[in-house]
Design a protein that fits this description.
The protein is 59% helix and 11% strand. By secondary structure, the protein is α+β, with helices and mostly antiparallel strands.
């Protein structure tokens, strides 16, 4: 049988390009990005091990049998880890509690765990594959189970999307459905025509589309101040708050922000906010500054008491004095408060929720007017 390698080679190139682009453009590393990166990594590894295993198989008896078992087993392990990575990604994108519940997560993982056991025991049991006396690759009696568990996680992912439609736009849902249906189709096609080796290529294309549609780096940036926004705060700080880790925050609230368009105009308001952002970034790490809403900013303070007190003092001095920008000098009423978590969690939640959801205000926005 003549195998067509070029599809797997293309899969590796596409997946590597996605991985490089992802890490060059990412703003923050969220749990969904971890899941996506892990899935993409397994696509690369499965394609690479598939090429190696086929190359060894074509060498016949010149290659030790254990080496064939090793690389074919690695291919099976990597390829059949992709479906549970896909399901995990969907669960993370829906902010579901399924991963937080250990019993639920364990129950959901049982089909995957069983698949891994079958693959690892294959050299002894021949449950998934084996080689006859002519070194011909032959499917074992449980090979069909691997495809069943793959379809199980794909179906589970689709059900999760149906139950959480509000978390996905129409384009997002279309991409995920496309990813699932085309990937499942490629599995069936390659099962009957193994020489095509198209599964890795189809998966890489699906991963590329998912990358383009599901994770937008700009979702985590406040465009006006060029700092992290509320989404970034939830993604970065949220898990630590859930674990009740000890942290201190400085809350900053400007009372007149919503009237600034009328007072100084849109252009000057944008210059003002960027000036404030520059002040804060000169004092604190940019990655610890979050704009929760149009009038509220939160800063994660340094754990060292001396450094923290110095940060607070510098911020007070800078924000309480008149702000100069574009030949304009303006004094704003600013409210500062230090909040310790988890002790003051309720106070902090009130501070976060008081203004409702934030709005990223672009350069042409005039939505800051009086309601």
């Amino acid at each position: 049988m003549t195998y067509i390698y070029r599809f797997e080679i293309a899969a590796i190139i596409i997946s590597l390009a996605v991985m490089i682009t992802l890490f060059r453009n990412k703003v923050i590393t969220t749990r969904s990005i971890y899941a996506f990166s892990t899935m993409n990594l397994f696509v690369i590894l499965s394609s690479a091990f598939d090429i190696i295993s086929i190359f060894l198989l074509e060498k016949g008896t010149d290659i030790p049998l254990w080496l064939n078992f090793l690389f074919n087993g690695l291919y099976q392990l990597c390829f059949h880890t992709i479906p549970i990575c896909f399901y995990t990604l969907i669960v993370l994108l829906t902010n579901s509690n399924k991963l937080k519940s250990k019993p639920k997560f364990l129950i959901t993982s049982i089909p995957y765990i069983l698949a891994i056991i079958l693959i690892l025991s294959t050299p002894l049991t021949h449950s998934i594959f084996y080689f006859d006396q002519n070194y011909t690759y032959t499917h074992g009696p449980f090979i069909y189970y691997l495809y069943v568990q793959a379809f199980f996680y794909a179906g589970l992912g689709l059900i999760t999307i149906f139950r959480n439609k509000k978390h996905f736009s129409f384009d997002n849902r279309f991409v995920i459905f496309f990813y699932t249906i085309v990937s499942m189709t490629s599995v069936i096609v390659q099962f009957f025509f193994p020489q095509l080796m198209i599964m890795g290529f189809i998966l890489s294309i699906s991963v590329l589309l998912s990358f383009l549609y599901l994770e937008n780096p700009e979702d985590y940036l406040d465009k006006e101040m060029n700092i992290y926004n509320r989404n970034a705060f939830i993604a970065i700080i949220g898990p630590a708050l859930e674990k009740k880790q000890s942290m201190k925050f400085l809350g900053i609230k400007y009372e007149e922000i919503k009237y600034l368009n009328q007072i100084i105009g849109v252009k000057n308001r944008i210059s003002l906010m960027r000036t404030i952002s520059t002040y804060l970034q000169n004092i604190c790490d940019k990655k610890k500054i979050f704009r929760l809403s149009r009038s509220k900013i939160v800063i994660l303070l340094n754990n060292d008491p001396e450094v923290m007190n110095n940060q607070i003092q510098q911020i007070k001095e800078k924000l309480l004095e008149p702000i100069k920008f574009d030949n304009v000098e303006l004094s704003l009423s600013v409210f500062l408060d230090i909040v310790s978590c988890p002790e003051d969690a309720e106070t902090f939640n009130n501070f976060m929720d008081e203004d409702g959801c934030p709005e990223d205000l672009g350069p042409d926005s005039d939505s800051d007017g009086i309601p």
